Amino acid sequence: MGHNAKGALLALIAFGIYATHDVVIKYLGGGYSPFQIIFFSTLMSFPLVSFMLMRDPQPGTLRPVYPMWTVIRTTAAVLNGMCAFYAFSVLPLAQTYAILFAAPLLITILSIPLLGEQVGWRRGVAVLVGLLGVLVVLRPGSAPMSFGHLAALGSAIFGALASIIVRKVGREERAVVLLLYPMAANFVVVGALMIAFYKPMPIIDFGAASLISIMGFIAGLFLIGAYKAGEAAIVAPMQYSQILWASAYGFFLFDETIDTFTMIGAGIIIASGIYIVLRESSKGSSQTPVLRTRSRGYGAAFRISPFLRPDDRRKMTNAGTRTVGENQ
User: Fold this and answer.
1) pLDDT tens per residue, range 297-321
2) Which of 51, 78, 295, 305 has the smallest CB count inside 10 Å?
3) What DSSP assignment string belongs to 46-65?
């Protein structure tokens, strides 16, 4: 099997696990607040991430090099998790994914003021087309806009902001800082908010919350392997396979169907996102904001970029290939 084929296969497995991860969120969201789900999944993530951090060879303290950017990113990551967990709880899975897929488009927009990235007219048109796809899914004025829709859109915005900040400060900040600050904030802030909505959890539901952490961890390992094995232009588009998983899970487990507008809008968003990924890869941009920063991870999950070896990151920057693509 070739390197790109192996990378694509590992990515498909990773995003299949992530889609199952989101099904568990939706299942728990029917009976518990997003705050309670995030709190317990974060709590169970600490031991898993700690084992990985033991391998961090970089010396230093937990004090961030860029405190203000760390605060902004941590806030965005916490809000991203809250919004995503709520959206998955109340919206059809496929519709939630269609809106979340707008994040790479938003990263491209944010890369202009925050990274000084030059976005040519082709990528600019692709972004506009993708945002039109979001409007097709949301159908403002013709269909009622719920808090779930706003939450999904908020998750895409906050996730894009958190990702672009990682691209801005990630070379100087330690992996442990990038990982633990959002997790600690989730534990404290979401834990405080949970008190007003807390419901006792039977052992099966507590196990489901633990399963969210375990699946996010395992999927992250597969995604690390995917980006080390194959080119980002091949691996990154695999994230859109989640719409297929969402359609199947939604139909068989939650009696959901995909309406025509969601299908058309998702197609537009996916097409524009793939074009941007391929455009950035072919240009070999030193910034490559979508490829380098976009990774899965809502609330409790860890980012995969800090765990790539330094030589891998140099290859990503120089060639625009083995870059990190999807969550915070």
Assistant:
1) 565 555 555 554 444 444 443 333 3
2) 51
3) HHHHHHHHTT------SS-S
